[in-house]
Description:
There is one protein chain. By secondary structure, the chain is α/β, with parallel strands linked by helices. It folds into two domains: about 30-130 and about 265-290, Rossmann fold; about 130-265 and about 300-305, Rossmann fold, CATH 3.40.50.2300. It has nine helices and 14 strands. It is about 40% helix and about 25% strand.
Amino acid sequence: MKRRYFWVPVLMLLVGSCGPKNTTNQPKKVAVIISTLNNPWFVVLGETAAAQAKALGYETKLFDSQNNTALEADHFENAIVSGFDAILLNPTDSDGSIVNVMKAKEAGIPVFCMDREVNSTKAATSQILSDNYSGCVAIGKEFVQDLNKKGDYVEILGLVGDNNTWNRSKGFHSVVDHYPGLKMVAQQSADFDRNKALDVLESILQAHPNISAVFCGNDAMAMGAYQALVAAGKAKDVGVYGFDGADDVMNSIRDGKIKATGLQAPQMMAKAAAQFADDYFKGKSDFAQKVPVAVELVDQETIKDYATPKKR
């Protein structure tokens, strides 16, 4: 099977932004605000963004919002009063984070979103986003093929306030729902959290012990679901599908435990956001509002095309 790539046109909704607010010779400061650092994938996103901004010559600080919009608001207040010149943001909530981004904008601080978006085209200076929908269309096709178009399955959703949750679910269902032999017996949120996914699936298995597969909205939940299946003695009978391309899931696909995932590019999005901040500081004022980044389908056949992840 060949590696597959999925692209959508960049939405060229251009947004003007304020010019740099700091004209002194002091190094400019870049805040990196991440939804949670309790997930290795977001650790890579945040640390890469901070490292790239530092490499470009800027002071950086990494903030953890712990999936809490109120804590994210505190980080924005801190960044504003502390004189940060740009914010690289992985939003906590697609709607709830808008007010925080607008406060930064009103203070003359550009915000560049990474991976997750806010539901406004007038808040962030630019949003660099994975093509979640198309990536999960590919997973849906793989899912249908692996299950031979029939069987009961479970879907474990991410954060209900995150657009990525629904874009992934919609992409998956745009394929799977065309096959009446495939029946979703349960759909429940686990907030993109590994331990919550374990608990959710353990509970679901009590009511639906004969499922054939589990589609999870991210890889952390896929690993939690796999743990639940191991505990129930069903790991060899139930296929697990994730999304992110996290190291532990890539290794689990290599070991024949997880069926497939959608490989995102956190380093690419993080470096692009830092570069956009650098471009802004150098005088650029117009940025594409949404910049989509391709997602690659990785399964047990194509995993050989990927190097073994390095231990961090």
